[in-house]
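Example record used in the benchmark description.
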Amino acid sequence: MANLYEIPVHTITGEGTSLADYRGKVLLIVNVASECGLTKQYDALEKLYSRFKGSGFVVCGFPANDFGAQEPGSNQEILKFCTGNFGVDFPMFSKIAVTGVETHGLYQALIAAQPKAIGPTRETFRERLNGFLTSKHNGATTNPEPGILWNFEKFLVDRNGNVVARFSPEVTPDDPSVVAAIESALNS
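Model output (structure tokens):
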């Protein structure tokens, strides 16, 4: 599996970088979208970041337009939306693909490391999404496992760069299971 710290990414303002800047920290990597029914999760992500950043925790937002074209804007528009509407201060990265043949190398590595997402209502959520897609997007369906189900799927990476958990999109960032996993990773 690829070392997460060595995979090239770009900041939302276009600078080439990698996650090596966050080596030794606990990361919550999230594929985000500005026009999704789950977009309000930005607020909870920012609160988590504020709460735990002093302990070595970082939220990393990766915009993706893969689900119902819910992230159509440019990187500049996305950044303005996130900071203006949710006060996002956590690192945001350039828009990437998290599904299909164009899946970014980071997401290929994340999925390979953690092919199953945690979420007690994941299958119900999948059924609702499939209903939405069938009615709004000409019969499209969600990605089969282990693919990313939708916007706001979350990967938790420990201080050593190991993917230790993956949370389904409908599991909110402030869900007790997410908070407990973050606290456990911070204390390890």
